[in-house]
Queue: 2 jobs
Job 1
Amino acid sequence: MHEKYNHQEIEKKWQEKWKEQKLYETLDEVKGKKNFYTLVEFPYPSGNLHIGHWYAFAVPDIFARTKRMQGYNVMFPIGFDAFGLPAENAAIKNKVDPKKWTYDNIAFMEKQLQSMGNSFDWSRKVITSDPEYYKWTQWLFLKLYEKGLAYKKKAGVNWCPSCNTVLANEQAVGGKCERCGTEVTQKDLEQWFFKITDYAERLLSDLDNLKWPEEIKTAQKNWIGKSEGTSLKFEIRNSKSETIEVFTTRADTLFGVTYLVVAPEYEKMEKWKEEKIIKNWDEVQNYINETKSKTEIERTTWKKDPSTGSGQVKTGVEIKGIKVVNPANGEEVPVFVADYVLGNYGTGAVMAVPAHDNRDFEFAKKYGLPVKEVIQPLITKEIGEDAFEKDKPVIERRSVVAVIKHWSEDKYLGAIWKKTGWQGFVIGGIEEGEDAKTAGLREITEETGYKNVEFVKTLPGIINARFLQRVKNQNRLAHFEPVLFRLKDGERAGVVEEEKILQDLKWLGPDEFEKFITHADMQIVWQRAMGNYCYTGDGEMVLGCRREGILVSSGEFNGLTTAEAITKITKKFGDKVTKYKLRDWLLSRQRYWGCPIPVVYDPQGKPHKVPGKNLPWLLPEDVKDFEPKGESPLVTSKELKERTEKIFGNGWKPEFDTMDTFVDSSWYFNRYTDPKNDKEFANKEKLKNWMPVKRYSGGDEHTARHVLYARFFHKALFDLGLVNEAEPFVERMNRGLILGPDGQKMSKSKGNVVDPDELVEKVGSDTVKMYLAFIGPYNETGQYPWDLGGVVGIRRFLERVWKIGLKIESHSAEASGDKKLENQLHKTIKKVTEDIENYKFNTAISAMMIFLNELEHTNQVSKGTFDTFLKLLAPFAPHMTEEIWNSPTSLKLRGANESSIHLEKWPKLDETKIKEEKITVVVQINGKVRAQFEAEVGISEKGAKEKALALPDVQKWLVDKKIKKIIFVLNKIVNFVV
RNA sequence: GCUUGAGUGGUGGAAUGGUAUACACGCAACACUUAAAAUGUUGUCCCGAAAGGGUUGUGGGUUCGACUCCCACCUCAAGCACCA
């Protein structure tokens, strides 16, 4: 061991040795060891590793190494998700071959990854763009196709008519082409889909059995978006057979329907046109064409509607000539076509209940349609319950209570209400977008006329008040927020007449003011609110609000609660149905660098599978132009066309589209179990050895899509009898994100990318890895701005360990008799072991730091103690610990030959060693800490009480006090309540 | 707007309902040094001379005791975005 901790030398040396010794190559089975499969999402070979990759791979390596030391046969594989758009973009930009670009990147990144010193098993590497891999992607696709889970249909893509090209959603920002600014339109293409919707229910219900963090489950649930509702049929007047079917989750509002809306794509539109029952067809057609020219993005971008002052711009036209009948009450209502209704969800038609749905309300307001209330909220009892009236809607308001100080004197502006004679402060409603401060400033100018006001501070005491506002006869729930203002001078404009009639202003002296600031003043504010005047609101808030409550104006259903009414109305007028937001998975890409879809078409255009013996169905290499043109660049391949005709016959054509890269990554974890198999995608026995993945770490950007797709794929394979379990991942952990030093997401264009190579060169792989683990809890998806400053803390820690290592060498091997140190050591074993299991590496490291501090302050440290500590540290700093472990003196002291620390057994916790004999008992008086004393573990309540009462610091506080109660918490607290 | 997550020192963060601010960074003083760096020691939430008091986004509540549980509100981040 050298005096100096030379990380460069050490890390290089051990990485080479580990490779030679094949230390991390995993056998399929090892006698006496259980298999343990831990996985990280494989990277896209973008060119070089950034610090985010380190965070993604180096930190979970701590877990993998620990599991290995704990006696598991651990598989921790790595590969490359190598198909994808960037390769083509590079090809277009730099005229390089996408394949070469990709494989060069892989070679470079492999080298970078090696410098991490991770315990990856490189022998199991998979690359999704290798024909040996995508052969099986194709084979699996065909399996799904055979089962009817892959199908073809027309679907829209974003299309730029000027560039003559297909755009990805992110290239069509704001409905305009990213490159030329032209309006993006929709173009229909025949495309391949996976029927993931068939699995919606299972994908949802199987979540219940997974031990995943709740937020990940919720994210998936939301993505699947199950909603149970009612299908209702509205008959078209004078037509017995024709109906418009709608889907609603709020059947209870059926009596409040005042019109119907259908989507512009509504399927029956054509039929109506042919039957010529639409009287204003030209107008309707115009509207439909208008929406068609808009993109999905444009249609769904949130814009505030200036004509209604709220919500999103809603447009539509009435379909004249069609009226429908409400099945519940026989009322006749009009039908509109509007693009706020989506063609691809539900039935493409909705019943509109403007009184209880915001969107319907906005639309109704804009087009002057009637609003019919059928639900009234239930009121819960609170203050002011007597004033509250049952069965009346509640209006929620935030109001500011403006306490206004005089510009020079110690007096405050009060208001006297002429009607009631009541005195209070200026009160005003807080409008949307305002805070109490700005609302207060505005109200003061309006109500008092004073011009120069400044904000001082927010006063404590928000009052929540429920009351009946008598003038308007409305139930209100108000939050009053008192704020202190100061007038700068007496300059004053006139006050509007309206305000003058209502109130007089009066200066209040300090005494009077005091009353308002204490708790009692809340009563006054309260009375003020109860008084017969309120400035705010026009009652519209209640309309358009979705509420639960009691049915009114609903015939026989009056008085039922929302839940009851939904059941009863559904039973009587409709059918119970379930809908999902989840759409089928569009897997076709009009791109070159992807897995070819193994399908060919006969001269009649009928699709056929490419037979197994012709797999892999190779991606042709004679494509030169990768520019997206609305069809796949593969159409320019002579080789592909010739190959197809040669194998299948004249007039046969290949499928030119390639697959979404999410297909490649939906099954790769299976391939790791048997990466070189050329007979099967993976042998079933080998799959059984390893699957399901015990812990899968990845970014939270993948929870909704990649993880869901992989689950779908695995379920489909399970149904086909190809895999052994229906769920691929036992545990899923999402990590956080490393931001640039500027707190922004790292990107080349922002120039805030942290280069890990440089850093590793400077401080070493162990330091970088440990720093990333130390930055915060790994199982929470926080965001961490990269801060180089913190790295030195870890580097110092490792250097101190190194130094102790040197010191130990000069010590004898005799056991230390230090009980306290042993106790600390075992506490550290416990903490570190538990924290690694829970991915809380930050606190594990902090525990080791605390122990190191202890070690440094102990004169005689035994080799055994230090070795145990070194083993705990080994997964975190694999190179350095290995070096110390194998230093000549260390070997001599151990009387051993060179062997890896990473093959050592994880330190075992000895529970008897962490038992404390003495503990500190805290003495509280009324919950406040006043003293503490040492006592033996398990001290009785009586003993503790006596000891506590003997303390002068306790007696001091108990003078002239009577002890009412004593709370005793074993080994922790004695609390005297007086 | 909806969903989810989060608000604790100058910073990253720590705390099964039981001594809030562990650990680390930064900063300050001191030691070593001709000096600096490195290293080490000590200190470092706020008010206060002290006794003591206050403090986990805000306001309430439950409790002997609340960062932790409940209610309301505010702010930030991410995802979804007219899903009936």
Job 2
Amino acid sequence: MNNQPRGRKAYHHGNLKQALVEATLSLIQEKGPTGFTLAEAARQAGVSPAAPYRHFKGREDLIAEVARQGYILFAEQLETAYNRGKPTPLTAFEAVGRAYLDFARTRPGYYIAMFESGVSTVGNPDLNMVENRAMAVLTQAAENLFEHLPKSQRPPATMVSHHIWAMSHGVVELFARGEPGGRAPFSPEELLESGIGIYLRGLGVIPE
Amino acid sequence: MNNQPRGRKAYHHGNLKQALVEATLSLIQEKGPTGFTLAEAARQAGVSPAAPYRHFKGREDLIAEVARQGYILFAEQLETAYNRGKPTPLTAFEAVGRAYLDFARTRPGYYIAMFESGVSTVGNPDLNMVENRAMAVLTQAAENLFEHLPKSQRPPATMVSHHIWAMSHGVVELFARGEPGGRAPFSPEELLESGIGIYLRGLGVIPE
DNA sequence: TGTACATCAGTGAACGCGCGTTCACTGATGTAC
DNA sequence: TGTACATCAGTGAACGCGCGTTCACTGATGTAC
């Protein structure tokens, strides 16, 4: 059903929904969430401005779909990096941190739709679910880290995952945007890696 | 010069520039940076849509001014909290962290203009200066923390301040926005305080 | 103290623009028999 | 295999809207003499 007659414009696009998602990604990337308009996404997909309404309730709904797909990819990428805690819980955890940053940098369109577009995951069950799935990877990775700690010394894993998420997000927003070297004398990678390292030492899971 | 004849609308506003800044703050707070329009700010200040152009080059310029004032207030608030490192470097540092969060929560309009409006401090010397001033407080507070550490163990203070900034910003963006309890089972205050605590322990400036 | 005049800080009308959305429509596709 | 028909996924024109910005203007204020 994806095969339109090649070489002549088909009346039916064939895959408009996804084409709109991709147009949204590239527009958001270029001009920020403000710069994105439904009309332009339609234009970029080679379709009239009314066409998107066959697939989305409106502008907001399209952005939300982009965010939803983004969360899924995000969770997958984190899961892959986590690799079920192999080879060691610690290296796996650190790999997740790097994957976070990598996602934000290589897929800025998704990242922006997810975190900077103003879509709220509260009150949108679909979004909420995929967001939790991504979060769960971080929490799981944290949990594993504490295996060897005496129970009394284990911090709540969700707290740790929130800390890591906050620091990663902060690094992305403040230091991984705009011109290289914009705000910081350190690369985002260095910054996140060293930050997580110090934090983990404070947690007692890295010996000094 | 601030005294207009009371009780009758004056042809000259008297303090329009600041009134526009305040209108911008409240609009940005309510509707986000996207929802802000020059026209509405003018309306809210009780003035024609052309009037703002006597004081600002345009929409962007007004937002930049709001951000600029925000950075100054921000730096002042951090400085006050820092209190020259009294009573101890550690408590002073922690107070700065709390002040960061407090600023973001009690002055969301400024915070949003500074960090979420898309104004870039790069290439705007005025903004750059005040941003650095705020940053310097964090760096100074970090530096003090290491007084008692042997030189070889001292991490670069700017790195530390960047870490703290990132974590604070992350907490604000992810957990201090939207409905209470939106994304996290912890309050932003708890989250930031515990996060910084663990980090400082990792730095070796808090004994376990 | 009064007056002439320059400057400042507003007005209000107008512009062109592009957006989001709706509508009745139509061409293409899929399906039942 | 062919045909009738329902449904799907587009079109294109139109709408009302509010925005940012410009313009010639004017009323208020400040200053030199």
